[in-house]
TrEMBL record:
It catalyses: Na(+)(in) + 2 H(+)(out) = Na(+)(out) + 2 H(+)(in). Keywords: Antiport, Cell membrane, Ion transport, Membrane, Sodium, Sodium transport, Transmembrane, Transmembrane helix, Transport. This is Na(+)/H(+) antiporter NhaA. The keyword Cell membrane applies. Coiled coil: none annotated. It comes from the Bacteria. GO terms for cellular component: plasma membrane.
Amino acid sequence: MNLSLYFKKFFSSNQSSGIILIFCVLVSLLIANSSAGEGFQNFLDKEVGTQLFHLTYPVSIWINDGLMAVFFLLVGLEIKREMVEGELSSFKNASLPIFAAVGGMLVPAAIYTFFNSGTEYSSGWGIPMATDIAFSLAIISMLGKKIPNSIKIFLAALAIVDDLGAILVIAIFYTEQIHWAYLLLSFGTAALLFLLNFLKVTRLIFYIIPGLFLWYFLHHSGIHATIAGVLLAFSIPTNVSDVETSPLEKLEHKLHFPVSFLIMPIFALTNTNIAFTSEMVAGVTSTLGLGIICGLILGKLIGINVFSFIAIKLKLSTLPQNSTWLQMVGVGLLAGIGFTMSIFIALLSFKDSIPIQDEAKFAILIASFLAAVLGFVILSMSSKKDMNAVEN
């Protein structure tokens, strides 16, 4: 089945925004390790907003919980489109990212635990479970038409499931207190959104306003609020008419440019603000560093591909259309870009020890860099191999 026009457009824009994203990462690292680093961090820590409804947060929170919810909204819209009418419309295609994501969470956690069980680092088992969806999609999109679009869709769906899993892990194991009243309000608001869909309400404003309340309630419940973007996306109707543009298509079109060329670069600029210290380097060869690096690179690679292989052999799933196992290896490596979510879990895991936090950050940065480079190289090699096969 042909890929939807909007999904092609999404990845086409990301192909060019990926370069901007990498540039922002380099700029952020330079700032963090210069005389401007402290001032930039103070800016990110500065609280802005209004005391009304308790909406005063640091700039970094507004970016990671606010702007990134919009990014998750766009990716959620694309995933829903493909589930309804595209690459994920069959159960066998849609189930593969779920099986892969489960393997991509369990195996890294097991590898980390192998290195750190019984040590002071044992609480960090959730660190290598996460995939940074923004960076992984940006890297794979830079390959353009060199790889099948089905592989890009697979990674997007995998990363969404992975992030939802990471959010659940944070909520259950790393959140000190869940505010149940706000969580119940979140469930009620989500139910209202899906009721509007069931009643065939098509005006976007009737989804956007409850979506803002959903974000507010989730954020105050103690759960990572970016999940609000996914829930909102799945509630917005599509295929209302074969002639008219659906509400999903309209919103998707409006979000394209700001997400690719504004939100993602800002996200990269603010989340790579890591100042290097000598303790960080020393921590790479510790059990903490080895657990994180091996968990993110080997754990993701093995977990995603082994669980995918089992699901396909049991005929529960099928390989993405026109893809190869070599490309699945590349995707498994790209999923090892843990970065922001991994750093977030590291901060929660070792909140009483800044030196351990720093060691974990550096290990995550190294693992994510290696995963990005290796994944990009493997996927590039797979495209050349396919081209040679066609020529011969």
